[in-house]
Specification:
Elements: E1 14-17, E2 24-25, H1 28-39, H2 45-58, H3 76-84, H4 89-105, E3 111-112, H5 116-125, E4 129-134, H6 141-147, E5 156-159, H7 160-163, H8 170-180, E6 187-191, H9 194-203, E7 207-211, E8 224-225
Parallel strand pairs: 1-4, 1-6, 4-5, 6-7, 7-8
Antiparallel strand pairs: 2-3
The chain binds magnesium ion.
Residues 18, 20-22, 191-193 line the site of magnesium ion.
């Protein structure tokens, strides 16, 4: 039986996912251990997840009261997350080095989303092309997906580090569409960053669905889902 699809996917030929925070998640236990070692603070996974979401919300935001996020340097997302949790600059510096070493041993984004495998498989069964477009710092998108157990499932992987452009630039969406052989209007982009995924994909002409598990974006101009399974109502 063909699964029921989320209204945004009706008539679409391709579903393109963001990777980090969407299909794969940070290795929270390792990040907690590293913070304890570097700064003597023990953070819970939920606490870090929320701080990460709040950090992400500031990315691309110019609203009053928003803190500006330095989006340069290794693991800037985690640096900003730990900053948001109250660690000072030297602790954050030390942590970035420790994260980098840990990431060298095993990809730090190696946690799999609980719904990801089934959703991807069902979308493919429904006849959609399924792809990933990810901003990476080091060209290790394939490694991340494989570490999370999602390797070999996708029709196309686009790794910003390898193609030389990144979200929110429309060029990376156009590149993916060209390789998939679909028009922008036939593709849906699913991601957890409002600025870099949802708004950027819409600006490039794609439909967008924002993955917003913590209900942080009531202002969104696109449909929101709480979990990936919501793409297949009644199935996953
Ligand atoms: Mg993401």
């Amino acid at each position: 039986m063909i699964p029921t699809l989320h209204p945004s996917l009706q008539g679409a030929r391709a579903c393109i996912f963001d990777a980090g925070g969407t299909l794969v998640h940070p290795d929270w236990p390792r990040l907690a251990e590293l913070a304890e070692g570097a700064a003597g603070r023990r953070f819970g996974a939920e606490e870090m997840r929320r701080a990460f979401g709040e950090m992400l919300k500031c990315v691309g935001s110019t609203g009053p009261g928003g803190r500006s996020i330095d989006q340069t340097g290794r693991h800037w997302t985690f640096r900003a997350m730990y900053g948001g949790l109250g660690l000072d600059e030297s602790a954050c510096d030390s942590l970035v080095g420790r994260i980098d070493a840990a990431h060298g041993e095993r990809h730090i984004w190696c946690g799999v989303d609980a719904d990801a495998a089934r959703v991807v498989d069902e979308l493919k069964r429904a006849g959609l092309l399924v792809a990933v477009v990810s901003n990476t710092e080091d060209g290790r998108l394939t490694d991340s997906l494989e570490s999370a157990g999602l390797g070999g499932r996708f029709d196309l992987l686009v790794d910003s580090h390898l193609v030389g452009c990144k979200k929110p630039d429309a060029a990376i969406f156009r590149l993916a569409l060209g390789r998939l052989g679909v028009e922008a209007s036939e593709a849906v982009f699913v991601g957890d960053s409002y600025a870099h995924d949802a708004l950027a994909a819409r600006a490039a002409g794609l439909r967008a669905v924002l993955l917003d598990p913590l209900d942080m974006h009531p202002e969104a101009v696109c449909p929101r889902i709480r979990r990936l399974g919501d793409l297949l109502p009644g199935v996953v």
